[in-house]
Amino acid sequence: MEIVKIREHNEIADKAALWFHVKWNVPVDAYKESMLECLKNEDCVPQWYVALENSEIIGGLGVIENDFHNRKDLTPNVCALYVDDGYRCKGIAGKLLNYVCEDMSSFGINTLYLITDHTSFYERYDWNFLCMVQGDEEPDMIRMYIYKQSLS
């Protein structure tokens, strides 16, 4: 398994946008637009990453300014983390999370946020529950997690 940065592999951006669209049912054009922005501005948000096995995408995630919630001050956000069913429980999600945290740290971004309905998954990877936030056009509150890179 190999994790790649879309900004360094623009040849897979369209394939990645379609993969994320299928997993999350967000319009493929929204992913394409965000990935195009990633390719134009290589050293800032947004950023996109995929895990590859034999050149096939088996997992991925992004970093965007806001993952559709009301706390615009809690930014940037890890989003769209997904690992295909056949590859789950193999540590791939954790590797993706760690990879992204290290990559963002190289840009001087040492604090990241994410929203999720999971209650114990992210703690395994040094993320901590922060608060409940209101999702855009969602009736219920959702959990917000924070990751702070150690600066020591």
Molecular structure report:
The N and C termini lie far apart (30 Å). The chain is built from three helices and seven strands; from the N terminus they run βααβββαβββ. With 152 residues, the protein is of the alpha+beta class. The model has no long low-confidence stretch (mean pLDDT 94). The longest helix is centred in the middle third of the chain and has 15 residues. The strands form two sheets. The protein has a four-stranded antiparallel beta sheet, sandwiched between helices.
Helices, strands, pairings?
Elements: E1 2-5, H1 13-24, H2 28-40, E2 47-53, E3 56-64, E4 77-83, H3 92-106, E5 111-116, E6 128-134, E7 141-148
Antiparallel strand pairs: 1-2, 2-3, 3-4, 5-7, 6-7
List key phrases describing it.
152 residues, alpha+beta, 4-stranded antiparallel sheet, 3-stranded antiparallel sheet, 3 helices
Helix content: 25-40%
- Number of DSSP-assigned strands: 7
Mean pLDDT: 94
Q: Main beta sheet, described? A: 4 strands, antiparallel
Based on Cα principal axes, name the global outline.
globular
Radius of gyration from the alpha-carbon trace, in angstroms: 15 Å
Discrete helix count: 3
Strand order of the largest sheet: 1-2-3-4
- Straight-line distance between termini: 30 Å
Percent strand equals 25-35%
Structural class: alpha+beta
Low-pLDDT residue intervals, each spanning 5 or more residues: none
Order of helices and strands: EHHEEEHEEE
